[in-house]
What we know:
Alpha-Beta Plaits, four-stranded antiparallel β-sheet
Amino acid sequence: MRWYVAQTQPGREQRxxxxxxxxxxxxxxxxxxxxxxxxxxxxxxxxxLFPRYIFVALDLDNMSWRSVNGTFGVSHLITYGERPTPVPxxxxxxxxxxxxxxGAVRPMLSPLRRGDPLRILDGAFADCLxxxxxxxxxxxxxxxxxLLGRPVRVxxxxxxxxPA
Length: 164
């Protein structure tokens, strides 16, 4: 058995997961805790770690894997040529090892530590030095920038900073 990737219909990851289980396929949908704000209310929900994708364990030689493509909620298996492309060994196991009791995958620890110096490369604060604060959502980083003698939190794209 190897893990393969199936693309789902938009917003149908949970439906695909349920329907694959009904067909006795082993499927995995990694999820993470996402902050969501709506109508002046902020809450945390479990959201797919990889929106529109789920993982399916298959034995291509002994299973009728083509039926995955006809499953409600699934668009298709990701293939190279006519056969599904396997996920590299150990990737799914690594993701599962970081899953907490609530089913949420904990983010990987950043190689940066709070307080590490960063240089801002782009934008209004280009060439300024700052201190690493935390990783934010959607490939963004929060830094502390010294402005007018006091630290100010600024959130920037990760590509706009580099270690100083």
